[in-house]
């Protein structure tokens, strides 16, 4: 069952907007394993009074769904973002089912690691290394392919994970040329 937290920036979240979002986003519940409870965080923003930006993040126990859309019409942006979420779920469900046929269901296959670095680095002679945001998450064992899939699904350019074979903490990242890199760590 989805619960909603809808916030607006430069836009009032009217009952009609809330109803439209809830009705549309609830359609993706059919892809969740039975009994799944999830919290959908919806962020609406009006940009220059001409465009709307909609962000939806649905963190679950071992999977995070996230999509973002900009459009001239708020309702159209919501419709488009729900389509993105459905395609994302179907894409990863297909890959997971292929890889984990005899294992746990889709909602358990990937770990939820939200790694974001927000903040600007100032170009001063005196360096300031102020941490502006801290996040905590549990590392779940997976292989490099699963880590790349999760990184792409979250829309990030790097992803920290525990290697299922070695139990070491590793990092996959997207390179400027579009290929992927792997940083392997070891305890010494």
Automatic annotation (TrEMBL):
Residue ranges of the Sigma 54 modulation/S30EA ribosomal protein C-terminal domain? 127-182
GO biological-process terms attached to the record: negative regulation of translational elongation
Which Gene3D superfamilies does UniProt cross-reference here?
Ribosome hibernation promotion factor-like (3.30.160.100), Sigma 54 modulation/S30EA ribosomal protein, C-terminal domain (3.30.505.50)
Q: Which UniProt keywords apply?
A: Cytoplasm, Translation regulation
From the Swiss-Prot or TrEMBL record, state where the protein is found. Cytoplasm
Naming one, the record's GO cellular component terms include:
cytosolic small ribosomal subunit
Q: Pfam family of this protein, just one?
A: Ribosom_S30AE_C
Q: Where is it chiefly localized?
A: cytoplasm
GO function terms (MF aspect):
ribosomal small subunit binding
Q: What family does the entry list?
A: Belongs to the HPF/YfiA ribosome-associated protein family. Long HPF subfamily.
Q: Assembly state and interactors?
A: Interacts with 100S ribosomes.
Protein function: Required for dimerization of active 70S ribosomes into 100S ribosomes in stationary phase; 100S ribosomes are translationally inactive and sometimes present during exponential growth.
PANTHER family linked to this entry: 30S RIBOSOMAL PROTEIN
Task: Indicate what this protein is called per its UniProt record.
Answer: Ribosome hibernation promoting factor
What is the taxonomic lineage of the source species? Bacteria, Bacillati, Bacillota, Bacilli, Bacillales
């Amino acid at each position: 069952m989805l619960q909603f937290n809808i916030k607006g920036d430069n836009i009032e979240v009217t009952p009609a907007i809330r109803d439209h979002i809830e009705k549309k986003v609830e359609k993706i519940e059919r892809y969740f394993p039975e009994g799944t409870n999830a919290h959908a965080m919806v962020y609406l923003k009006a940009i220059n009074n001409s465009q709307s930006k909609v962000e939806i993040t649905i963190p679950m126990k071992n999977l995070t769904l996230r999509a973002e859309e900009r459009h001239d019409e708020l309702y159209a942006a919501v419709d488009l973002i729900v389509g993105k979420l459905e395609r994302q779920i179907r894409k990863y469900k297909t890959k997971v089912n292929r890889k984990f046929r005899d294992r746990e269901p889709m909602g358990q296959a990937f770990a939820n690691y939200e790694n974001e670095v927000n903040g600007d680095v100032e170009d001063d002679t005196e360096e300031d290394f102020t941490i502006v945001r801290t996040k905590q998450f549990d590392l779940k064992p997976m292989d490099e392919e699963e880590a790349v899939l999760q990184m792409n699904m979250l829309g990030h350019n790097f992803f920290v994970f525990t290697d299922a074979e070695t139990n070491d903490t590793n990092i996959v990242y997207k390179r400027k040329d579009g290929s992927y890199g792997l940083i392997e760590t070891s305890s010494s």
